[in-house]
Structure to design on (1210 residues):
């Protein structure tokens, strides 16, 4: 277990091994099958949690490190330089824990599945393998493979165990995602054939950052590079052969190396049909990820899939699968194609805001409880896109990246918070559906009287989704909305107004479903209180919703270093490549700009954009965290 | 040099150089004679022809490597390009590779014919004979180096195929299929022959590398009429190839023949026939677009025949004794060995357009199909389109990056290997289910997963692999070809290669729908009430074992495709150099 690759592989493939074992269990023992599956998901959850606690495992997640941790690789397909390359950092690690947690809870919720239990559990475990693989893969090819591996189990899980229109919903989900991933494949190949490890700009430092050259403690990148070439293992042989020959490029799928190339070389600057390769790659990748998130107008698969999917699958779909889109954008789109990301920042933000508004209005209009929650997901994931896209650093504000940093923090926090609240909402809707077998909002009312504990849990989770201060949804939303002010006032006003729409549809739902005199719909007699299994699934979600609302630092401490580093690298790129371009509109910088001060954000957020340059540099010098900004003239 | 010494050299060349390299084909010829004898001679009639055919194929497979076929991977240097039978055929790594694919496929198909019950023993002997005969023709197609040889090989492969299509004598559809196939085939063969004669008329030769050199010398002062004649000739040859590939618009025979013929024959037509046709396409494109290098010629010549003899001999066969041989050398010694840019662009664009249209049409037409054979027929049309996509980058890269061009052919070779297992798997399942259910309608497969989960899962795996979804090998093939397209675009800067890539990508997404429909019927739809109520699985263990044998590579090659990639690369190393 000393080798992090083994641990990561165990985390990813333990569910797949479990599925293999299940294949040999006779299918007439559903309880054994369910318990075994639950055991496997708990095992994976425990492994990831132990990793988060320092000192529990030989390989644990170090909060102070801002780069990729445990990044290690073995060669898989040498002819294409494809590696089996895994690692985790502050962006992916919280999502891994979210995945294992939501999967475990969803398995707990799967006791209501009674048809073909064996097939269900096998597919469920394969799905978990795919999801974990996406978050841990650092090789683009591997990433793509895991991304696709997820599709097959999901198709069957919706298509076999879903509701009345399951086949339609399943194939729609499959087609949309496959279309997106085909575009992604085109972009991957474009980037791969443009990449070159030996290019000008890919110096020792970049190779170390890409985890291609291992850096020993106390050594310099240059020495490490020499030692690596001298050792002559694997890629080093090819590198030594081709390092001085520009006609012989070494292509790579290494995501970290591609990030370095995107930021330090102009390899992706070639032209195709009037746009740069970067630009095409960014757009194609963004569409692929946007379908998964999903943003308007590629969102139409989501309500159908959610409504037809069984409850546990809805939980996973909303809790984990949607996050992959956001993860892809933050991990791949921006670092690899910074120029395109910079040029298209208004488009990205506008798409995010449109999703927020459209999703909220659509949610207001729904009559089906699950459809409403599905549209609320569209709206909430819009915050993620907006937060990721707020590239507000500009020459005009001395490349102050604090607000963009905050936007990304908000987006990441929102992903986790939404993973908790939406999984909770879908589960709670499922609890109600199991009893009364309908989801028609007009026929509910008075649930509070019949199921008081259930209603209490529901109200906490729904308020968490609404963004009530003190619950997890608030932190992400407020970070994102605040960060937008420095970027575009118009978008900020609209996105702030969405909070009202969110409050409207959530409060209205609470009023229509839980309040009221008495329940008059069908199956009134079935409204029994939650059983122990249901309570024990809801409680962890409620506890986490409150915990992250009150102590967001628990979560932010994992993400902060990585996000800081990534933002600073991108802004450093901007300073080099785009000097003098104003990132934000001047009108946004009114003299009476109110100070933004959020106690729970990282301690080095300073609302000081409107000081004079001199003041600013003086001020920044006093703050050691901002060495980067103090370099300004 | 008098006639006698020329004949002596020709005999010497044939016996010392050509015949040893032609061993597997000769073994197949002998096997065919033996098989025919079992139908005629009372003494050997008792012997089961299946075993004779199997032994013959095994010997043919093992003979080129002294009984060690795996040496292929280690020794790519052994396969330097050699022209055999005075330039009629070419022997190189690609020849060996294609022959290997065809023989392995023939062995697997033989087992399938044996396992399924549609042909009785007497028919079996006929089938084996025809299969071997067609395989011989296909093997010649894959190594053809002479336009006349191309025509002969295509005919040699086609005639047994017509008979195979009509082998289900109890079905009228089968006879219709055979008739349609043979009329169509005869027509396109005639057109192709005419095209060959036009090209020969302009270039005064039929030997492909000589055609390339002549075209290169003639290109600058080509008159307009000559250009038209050449273009027409090229198009007509392309029609013959397109028929074998079932490329649009010469695909009409394909669904009807597939519906009428048995699934076993369909597997043969879709895999072996198509693979050989693609190999031939590559041969023609390279043969016409790339001028053979002098260096290569001389090394080969040093090793095997005196150089003067070879060139002179070629000229004799071209009926152009007066042509000085240094004309050829002069062009070839230039820095770029690529043929004229105009010619290559014409070929590249033509094939790209045909590939894009074929792929799109195949995928769209498959939507409405209810018969599994027809659906798979359109699926093979679409796959022919995907595979043809590997050819334009080969053409585009020949002038700048020979290595890249060879990699593109290697991508095609990889796709062929994977496609072999995917399509053979699909048709073997169709054949086995046909024996059990008595139906080839997709609707009759409803709920099959409850009855025979093993074979249903195998079918689903194969269908998803045909879509090209990881972690299944079908993805590797598509990935390699798409990678070749991007590589070709990066090297040559031709935007149409990227357009082709996008067409291919969107087609992948589109194709999902109809493959998934079959999976849905099998896995999600309820079982019909009237299915034979006998308990247990529909397929026997041996049959399931066979299906598993064919399906496992579809999964395995995804995880170990480096091996496959190296094999394909070894096969194509000396293709252009």
């Amino acid at each position: 277990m000393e080798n992090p690759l083994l641990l990561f592989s165990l985390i990813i493939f333990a569910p797949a091994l479990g599925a293999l074992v299940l294949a040999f269990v006779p299918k007439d023992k559903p309880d054994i099958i369910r318990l075994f599956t639950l055991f496997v998901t708990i095992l994976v959850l425990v492994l990831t949690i132990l990793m988060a606690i320092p000192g529990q495992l030989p390989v644990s997640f170090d909060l102070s490190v801002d780069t990729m941790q445990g990044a290690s690789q073995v060669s898989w397909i040498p002819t294409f330089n494809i590696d089996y390359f895994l690692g985790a950092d502050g962006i992916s690690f919280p999502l891994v824990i979210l995945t294992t947690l939501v999967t475990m809870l969803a398995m707990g919720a799967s006791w209501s599945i009674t048809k073909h239990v064996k097939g269900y559990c096998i597919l469920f475990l394969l799905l978990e393998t795919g999801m974990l693989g996406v978050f841990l893969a650092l090789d683009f090819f591997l990433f793509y493979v895991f991304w696709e591996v997820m599709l097959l189990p999901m198709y069957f899980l919706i298509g076999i165990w879903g509701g009345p229109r399951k086949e339609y919903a399943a194939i729609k989900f499959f087609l949309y995602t496959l279309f997106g991933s085909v575009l992604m494949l085109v972009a991957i190949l474009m980037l791969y054939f443009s990449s070159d490890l030996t290019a000008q700009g890919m110096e020792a430092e970049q190779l170390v950052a890409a985890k291609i050259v291992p850096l020993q403690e106390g050594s310099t990148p240059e020495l490490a590079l020499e030692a690596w070439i001298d050792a002559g293992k694997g890629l080093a042989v090819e590198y030594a052969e081709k390092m001085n020959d520009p006609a012989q490029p070494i292509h790579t799928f290494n995501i970290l190396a591609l990030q370095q190339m995107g930021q330090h070389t102009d390899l992706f600057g070639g032209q195709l049909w009037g746009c740069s390769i970067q630009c095409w790659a960014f757009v194609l990748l963004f569409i692929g990820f946007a379908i998964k998130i999903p943003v308007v107008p590629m969102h139409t698969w989501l309500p159908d899939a959610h409504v037809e999917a069984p409850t546990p699958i809805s939980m996973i779909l909303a809790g984990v699968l949607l996050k992959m889109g956001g993860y892809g954008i933050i991990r791949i789109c921006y670092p690899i194609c910074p120029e395109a990301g910079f040029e298209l920042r208004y488009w990205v933000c506008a798409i995010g805001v449109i999703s927020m508004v459209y999703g909220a209005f659509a949610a207001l209009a729904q009559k089906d409880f699950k459809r409403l929650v599905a549209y609320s997901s569209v709206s909430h994931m819009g915050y993620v896109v907006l937060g990721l896209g707020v590239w507000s650093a500009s020459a005009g504000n001395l490349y102050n990246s604090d607000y963009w940093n905050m936007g990304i923090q908000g987006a990441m926090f929102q992903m986790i918070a939404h993973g908790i609240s939406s999984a909770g909402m879908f589960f709670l809707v499922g609890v109600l559906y199991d009893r009364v077998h309908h989801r028609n909002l007009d026929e509910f009312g008075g649930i509070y009287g019949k199921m008081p504990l259930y209603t209490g849990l529901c109200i906490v989770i729904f308020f968490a989704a609404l963004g009530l201060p003190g619950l997890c949804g608030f932190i992400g939303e407020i970070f994102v909305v605040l960060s937008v002010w420095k970027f575009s006032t118009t978008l900020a006003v609209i996105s702030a107004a969405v909070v009202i729409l969110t409050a409207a549809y959530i409060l209205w739902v609470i009023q229509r479903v839980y309040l009221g005199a008495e329940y008059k719909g069908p199956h009134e007699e079935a409204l029994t209180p939650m059983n122990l299994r249901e309570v024990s699934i809801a409680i962890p979600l409620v506890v986490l919703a409150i915990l992250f609302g009150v102590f967001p630092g628990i979560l932010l401490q994992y993400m902060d270093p990585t996000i800081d580093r990534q933002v600073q690298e991108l802004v450093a790129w901007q300073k080099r490549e785009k000097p003098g371009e104003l990132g934000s509109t001047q009108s946004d910088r009114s003299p009476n700009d109110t100070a933004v001060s959020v106690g729970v954000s990282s301690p080095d957020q300073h609302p000081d954009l409107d000081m004079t340059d001199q003041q600013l540099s003086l001020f920044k010098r006093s703050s050691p965290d901002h060495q980067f900004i103090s370099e300004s003239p | 040099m008098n006639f006698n010494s020329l004949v002596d050299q020709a005999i010497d060349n044939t016996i010392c150089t050509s015949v040893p390299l032609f061993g597997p084909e000769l073994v197949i010829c002998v096997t065919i004679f033996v098989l025919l004898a079992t139908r005629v001679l009372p003494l050997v009639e008792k012997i089961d022809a299946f075993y004779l055919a199997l032994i013959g194929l095994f010997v043919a497979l093992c003979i080129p490597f002294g009984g060690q076929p795996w040496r292929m991977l280690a020794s790519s240097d052994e396969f330097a390009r050699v022209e055999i039978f005075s330039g009629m055929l070419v022997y190189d790594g690609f020849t060996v590779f294609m022959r290997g694919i065809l023989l392995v496929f023939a062995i697997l198909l033989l087992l399938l014919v044996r396992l399924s019950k549609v042909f009785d023993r007497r028919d079996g002997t006929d089938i084996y004979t025809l299969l071997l005969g067609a395989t011989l023709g296909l093997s010649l197609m894959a190594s053809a180096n002479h336009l006349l040889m191309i025509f002969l090989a295509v005919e040699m492969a086609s005639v047994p195929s017509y008979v195979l299509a009509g082998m289900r004598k109890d079905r009228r559809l089968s006879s219709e299929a055979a008739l349609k196939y043979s009329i169509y085939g005869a027509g396109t063969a005639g057109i192709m022959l005419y095209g060959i004669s036009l090209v020969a008329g302009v270039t005064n030769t039929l030997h492909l590398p000589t055609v390339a050199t002549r075209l290169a010398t003639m290109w600058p002062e080509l008159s307009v009429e000559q250009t038209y004649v050449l273009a027409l000739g090229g198009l007509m040859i392309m029609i013959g190839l397109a028929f074998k590939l079932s490329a649009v618009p010469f695909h009409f025979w394909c669904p009807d023949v597939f519906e009428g013929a048995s699934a076993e024959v369909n597997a043969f037509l879709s895999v072996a026939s198509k693979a050989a046709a693609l190999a031939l396409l590559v041969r023609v494109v390279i043969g016409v677009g790339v001028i053979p290098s002098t260096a290569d010629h001389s090394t080969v010549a040093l090793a095997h025949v005196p150089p003067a003899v070879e060139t002179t001999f070629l000229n004799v066969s071209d009926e152009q004794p007066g042509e000085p041989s240094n004309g050829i050398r002069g062009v070839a010694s230039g820095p770029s060995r690529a043929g004229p840019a105009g010619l290559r662009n014409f070929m590249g664009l033509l094939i790209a357009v045909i590939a894009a249209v074929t792929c799109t049409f195949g995928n769209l037409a498959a939507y409405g199909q209810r018969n599994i054979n027809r659906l798979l027929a359109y699926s093979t049309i679409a796959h022919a389109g995907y595979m043809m996509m590997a050819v334009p980058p080969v053409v585009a890269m020949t002038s700048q990056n020979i290595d890249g061009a060879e990699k593109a052919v290697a991508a095609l070779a990889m796709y062929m290997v994977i496609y072999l297992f995917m399509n053979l798997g699909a048709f073997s399942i169709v054949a086995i289910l046909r024996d059990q259910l008595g139906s080839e309608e997709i609707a009759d497969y409803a709920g099959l997963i409850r009855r025979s989960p093993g074979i249903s899962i195998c079918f689903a795996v194969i269908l998803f692999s045909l879509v090209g979804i990881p972690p299944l090998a079908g993805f590797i093939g598509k990935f390699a070809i798409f990678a070749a397209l991007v590589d070709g675009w990066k090297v040559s800067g031709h935007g149409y290669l990227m357009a082709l890539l996008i067409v291919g990508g969107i087609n992948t997404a589109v194709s999902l729908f109809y493959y998934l429909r079959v999976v849905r019927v099998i896995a999600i739809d309820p079982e019909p009430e009237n299915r034979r109520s006998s308990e247990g699985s529909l397929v026997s263990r041996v049959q399931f074992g066979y299906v598993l044998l064919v399906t496992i590579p579809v999964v395995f090659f995804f995880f170990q495709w480096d091996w496959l990639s190296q094999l394909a690369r070894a096969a194509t190393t000396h293709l252009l150099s």
